[in-house]
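REQUEST FORM: STRUCTURE PREDICTION
Request ID: SP-0412
Submitted by: Lab K.M.
Chain count: 1
Length (residues): 485
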Amino acid sequence: MSNLTNSTASPENAEISAERQREAARGEAPFTPEPDTKVSFAKALREAAITAFIVGALTLFFVAVRSDIAPGGLIIYARWDLWITIIAIAFAVRLVLSLVLFQRKEASSSRSKTVKSVKAPGRFSAGRILGIVLMLVALTLPFLIRAVFPASDRYLIDLSILILTYVMLGWGLNIVVGLAGLLDLGYVAFYAVGAYSFALLAINFDLGFWVCLPMAGLFAALWGIVLGFPVLRLRGDYLAIVTLAFGEIIRVVLLNWAEFTGGPNGLLGIPRPTLFGLDFGRGEGSFSAYFGIPYDGIHRFIFLYYIILALALLTNFVTIRMRRMPVGRAWEALREDEIACRALGINTTNVKLTAFATGAMFGGFAGSFFATRQGFISPESFTFLESAIILAIVVLGGLGSQIGVVFASLVMIGGIELMRNLTFIQDVFGAEFDPSRYRMVFFGVAMVAIMVWKPRGLVSSRQPSAVYKERKAIGSDMVAQGEGH
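STATUS: Completed
RESULT:
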């Protein structure tokens, strides 16, 4: 007995015992019970019935009952078959989602959480390859459209220009909301400042697009600093209310200062951009006459496409580079905890002002391009709905994600335009069904479905801007909802 006591009390045996305990403690405990993954069909039926009832109640007076104007007054008639079809579709979709997705997700979430390290992507990861493919498609898109869809090439190229404009706006707002964590509901104000600055400079001083473009961005950045000073001590809901008010103030000023901004009539005669002094019109001195090619109106659309593509790529490049700089890391630190930032000696005043100014500058660039593309601007183009769409693009794509903004712009802007031509839905709901009337309803349902499926955005994983020894990707399970880290 004394020998056993002496052997266990020796330093060598104690060290071996401690090492065995450390080895046994590594990894997941073997006694962790497996979660119950059984799927309840009765629960799925109950959830599907509740969903069908809600859809039926919401669409009763929109789909089931319809009124038309007739010579004698209003004619009210019912479309019960269409109403029942919509309810049946909602019931079936909810039943499938409950059986396949929701209940399995609840079962997996009941497991004990363990920290898993996600290896960083290699040199030729899937994300990098996807980015290269998207870049090649973007560079050759006008020519691909002309080769594949020659009958509607002008419409599709113009739609691509619109999508790229919102991509650029989303990347600009992503600096303020996604990286710095400052909720901005008045981003359209900088969009308007850039557009009106460009238009007024070009019309009154007879300046070209390339001269007015940087000046419009600087004016928008100045207004971003003006907005940043009053909201230095505000965060969250209060900051959102102030930025919303700022956007409305800009719109009302543009609407009522008729002597300077044209008021509700807007500004006409905004000059088009030129390529080294060559315009894209007809006659001598034009692009077609200089190169000896037949005139084609599509040349101007292709030129505008490459202008907005270059501006969007510039926005993306500057954002990525600034995120890796100390100011970018300060933005992310401010987003996570402002009090900790102050404790570390970070000047939060300068950090907020740089975030507002940088995001506003890119909004001003996009506004100047919008003005030269349209040739006409008015306050009606800069309403709160535009700010809501841009913010929805950032949130839907994933706060802090650059590639997510691209996908969200394709879904939101391209999806809205695509729903104008969904004529095949008439085969399901009948010939009298007009899909263009319900495209916003379909679009809203699609957005709800995406947010249910991906609540943290389309791209929820992140690459850390600062690393120690080894770069590790941040998995979606480690990304807090409503934050961009």
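NOTES: Strands lie at 65-70, 73-78, 118-119, 472-473.
Reviewed by: T.R.
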